[in-house]
Amino acid sequence: MTPGTGRPVPAPLLVACALGIERLALRGGPGGGGGPVAVLRTGMGPLAAERAVTRALGDGTVRSDAAVVATGFCAGLAPGMHPGDLVVADETRDAAGSTQCTGVELLAKELARVAPRRVIHTGPLVGSDHVVRGAERAALHAAGALAVDMESAATLRSAARAGMRPVAAVRVVVDAPEHELVRIGTLRGGISAFRVLRTVLPAFFEWHRSLLLPRR
Fold first, then answer.
1. N or C: which end of the chain has fewer CB within 10 A?
2. CA 181 to CA 179: how far, in whole Å?
3. Of the candidates 45, 35, 30, 29, which has an alpha carbon nearest to the alpha carbon of residue 14?
4. Per-residue pLDDT tens digits for 176-189
């Protein structure tokens, strides 16, 4: 509680996702029931993400300097990627520009600890305002992107615009060039990605906690 008010203390960590199924995975996994975190469902698309994150950072839902993590599902762009692989962005980019991520190696290490049997990829995560398929995916990969989703770039850009803070993006591959899905959650790849997403929240806690430790 905030001293003298009786109101809850604003969380120092905001975890943003787009879909109800993503929020369900985050809340239903280990560590999902507590901890100093606000899990925000933004809705689909960059405009919805921008509005929801800007509002959460300004209305007292989280502290004004809260760290922000964009998470959920993504489409892998590189050959050899599989549903259930994890993508840790070193930057997010879209037509509006790019945002550098904080503590990338640290976050990848924590994810390897909580999901030891999963492949972790690190690289650029690109934003789109529509579902990307076929030749468009190949073109994004040729331009250097590792994976694509609709909200991460807008989420991190909105967070950085609201003030200096740690930002990160972690996505679970739900489909890839050789494993393209029709609908999330109806095929094996979607189920695998859901199970992986259930494991990630403790890694976000440790990433954030470690960033706060004094540097020697």
1. C
2. 6
3. 35
4. 776 565 444 445 56
